[in-house]
Amino acid sequence: MGKAKKILNKIIVYILVIFGGIACLIPLLWMFRSSLMNSVEIFMTPPKVFPSKVLWSNFTEVFELYPFLTYYKNSIILVVLIVFGTVITSSLCAYGLARIKWVGRNIVFACIMGSMMLPFAVTLIPTFIMFRKIGFTDSIIPLIVPAWLGGGAFYIFLLRQFFMTIPRDYDEAAYIDGAGHLKIYMKIILPLTKPAMAVVGVFSFLNTWNDFLGPLVYLNSESKYTVALGLQLFTGVYRSEWNLMMAASCLVVIPVIIVFIIGQRYFLEGLTMSGVKG
Amino acid sequence: MKNKMTLRKKRENIAGFFFSLPCIIGFIMFAAIPMMVSLGLSFTDYNVINHSTFVGLDNYSKLFNGDDPYFYKSLKVTIYYVALSVPTSIIFSFSIAMLLNRDIKGKGIFRTLFYLPSIVPTVAISAIWLWVLNPDFGLANSILKSIGLSPSRWLTSEATVIPTLVFINLWTTGSTMVIFLAGMQDVPRQLIEAVEIDGGGFRTKLFHVIVPMMTPTIFYNVVMGFISGFQVFAQSYIMTSGGPNNSSLFYVFYLYREAFQFMRMGSACSIAWVLFIIIMIFTAILFKLQNKWVYYGGE
Fold it and tell me: What is the pLDDT of residues B70-108, one digit of tens each?
């Protein structure tokens, strides 16, 4: 292959990658640009790329029209309770399934793996009826309880795979020194698997923040809405006021992007672990 | 000595059980019991308010004999969507992974850019694309017009709504791309080099080395794509409300409507079980076919 052809190839690759990368970003940039425009400029054809005057007041208007501060508060409470529950209980279970030899281990693991195949549509209705019967609808309890009971098969699987890679000699040595399992879990396994815990943490944050169906089914009063539900409500009412709608969308997207930038490494690591080893 | 061992074994059994207890309870409460209850309810006319009565297979026969026209409609819509979205997203994200797998500068930044859209909440994705694809004032139609193409109705016409949702789905396949990219790191270098020494071109490298070595990852993504494609809900709920004229009435949306708008829980459970069985059959077929094309190295 000629040298010229190689260089040409490289240029084509760069053009494709740069073009694709920008194309991925455009909808997000367009959202941000639209959120800063006034309601006349936004409908111009052909569209203006930049607002002639940056209008931050769209954001304050969104806060005045709908209680997004309350939605933030609700979402944050939910995220904290769910992320803690998921990290704590899924790692406890993963420890039990990876590091302790006991009679029911294989059956329990098989059941949990099997439950990953179960569509949420099947369990949604009976679970809803159950929570309704005990009077917990229109509260965040139905959204939190599952997180404190293992947090989901996927996380348990991910952590178990990770825990299996730690040499067994560590446990043995600690055991001989008289340490129980709780001590081994806290003093040996947890410090060694911090990155894996972070992976579970960021994914459970993302899934909670982005969850739509769960809050939609369980939360009725608007004062209990999460940010995602609040945006949906807003979208329904202000469908033609695109600048406000885009400002509201920014409010929902920005926290996710901040967490993503901070924890980017763990997002990518988590995907790699799930796809390649799973 | 022997006594000591059995004592330890006993203690291990107790410890293992208690460590796993949260997920055992979770499994029983949120998977095993609901699954059984759902199956049971699917044979009743339960509607939350009145007592339920046993109706046998009525719910199922109502679905299949066409009494409820929405059942077949939603099934058709969903299969159409899955048939389009699975292959396009696999090919698209595989191609991007191939591009990023090359020796290029700023690889990490590009990977981040392609991955970024997949973390955006569905509600926000929906709002953004409603605006970008707005038939009158949206960016997409302005671009089409400026390069001399005719504008599209996108989400507002029966013919284009599903292809448009498939297109939006492409925007969010970043995670599939990252999984492919990770898989490509495991393709043995010496195999690619061997092709290069023999004078094989890009095509040989791609179809005789990279794709065959990547089949386990492709298989994983196809299965996940199928399962999630069948359960698409929020996009159509927010963007199109199932319309226009039910042309984006996805199966889970139909189920949601039966359960939470019409409160027909019995019937909704039968709809859920039909979905469960369809997914099981599809996954079984995929697993059966896998030994025809999936290559597991060293096995």
Answer: 999 999 999 999 999 999 999 999 999 998 888 888 888
Distance from CA of A232 to the nearest CA of B (A): 6
Whether A78 contacts chain B with CB within 8 A: no
Instruction: Look up residue B140 and give its amino acid.
Output: A
* Minimal C-alpha gap between B134 and chain A (Å): 10
Q: Which residue has the tokens 């290029």?
A: B104
Task: Please enumerate, as own/partner, the contacts of A211-216 that have beta carbons within 8 Å and a separation of 24 or more.
Answer: A211/A143, A212/B121, A212/B122, A212/B123, A212/B234, A212/B237, A212/B238, A213/A120, A213/A124, A213/B233, A213/B234, A213/B256, A214/A142, A214/A143, A215/A143
CA distance A198 to A206: 12
Res A2 pLDDT > 80 = no
Say if residue A146 is preceded by a cis peptide, omega within 30 of 0: no
Q: Which CATH number fits domain A57-277: 3.10.450.50, 1.10.3720.10, 3.30.230.20, 1.10.630.10?
A: 1.10.3720.10
Q: How many residues does chain B have?
A: 299
Domain layout of chain A by residue ranges: 3-35, 57-277
SS3 helix, strand, coil % of chain B, rounded to 5? 75, 0, 25
Asked if B23 and A127 come within 8 Å (Cβ–Cβ), the reply is no
Q: Please give the ipTM for the structure prediction.
A: 0.87
Q: pLDDT tens, A243-273?
A: 899 999 999 999 999 998 888 888 877 777 7
Q: Over the stretch B5-61, which tens digit does the pLDDT of each residue have?
A: 688 888 888 889 999 999 999 999 999 999 999 999 999 988 888 788 888 888 898
> At residue B84, what are phi and psi to the nearest 5 degrees?
-85, -45
With a CB-CB cutoff of 8 Å, which residues 219-238 of chain A face chain B? Answer: 227-229, 231-232, 235
